[in-house]
């Protein structure tokens, strides 16, 4: 939890400094700040904390499966809250993607039957999923209010770091920092590339392509992770896992494919 605070705190300081240097205004009305705080809570704080807690009880594969559902829930949320038309193509692509992730991690479902305590992990992961979807809806609101991407992301990360700090204080988190080069370099890498660069790319994709296609990153992340695991950790593919990866990529192709003009 402390590392979540450090990660988004460093990213917020760097991005706020960049906005200040470029002369980008950081002033917004209070209602916009509320939306940016929701963005920070849902995407830069509480959802990450839920992931870390959930992975104490269930495998990262099951957590990845839960978060792949954002490909469907974001489309539904955008329709219910903002009346953004439902994209059947994105919905079908999301269903294919979730089905593929289910096949890839299907053997891990046996763990839940053997250990009922794993339901705690599934519940916490589901809460993180809902928070992430809420954060995405806050982003959509800010974008509809013409909030520029850079200052909006900077404030969102700052609020995320603040909310993580308050949550950590309430839970008695020890605020220690490991001063080893490995930890500091990994924290800097995560703050710059895994936060600033990744979030700006995601927010831009969300603005250009909509909530369905943008949230498909949560389907592709576990597929890419297993590919890297194959190269560096000796992961052995099964027929079911290969079929799941094929479904996931097929769903992505369908979700991102542009409709042909008449």
Any overview of this molecule?
It is built from 13 helices and no strands. It is mainly α. The model has no long low-confidence stretch (mean pLDDT 87). It has one domain (2-250). The termini are far apart.
List its traits:
78% helix; 13 helices
In short:
It is built from 13 helices and no strands.
Strand content: under 5%
Q: Compute the number of helices.
A: 13
Mean pLDDT: 87
Based on secondary structure, the structural category is: mainly alpha
Radius of gyration over alpha carbons? Answer: 19 Å
Domain count? 1
Q: Between the first and last Cα atoms, what is the distance in angstroms?
A: 51 Å
Low-confidence stretches: none
Question: What can be said about the biggest beta sheet?
Answer: none
Helicity level, as a percent range?
A: over 70%
- State the order of secondary-structure elements, H for helix, E for strand: HHHHHHHHHHHHH
Overall geometric form: globular
> What is the strand tally?
0
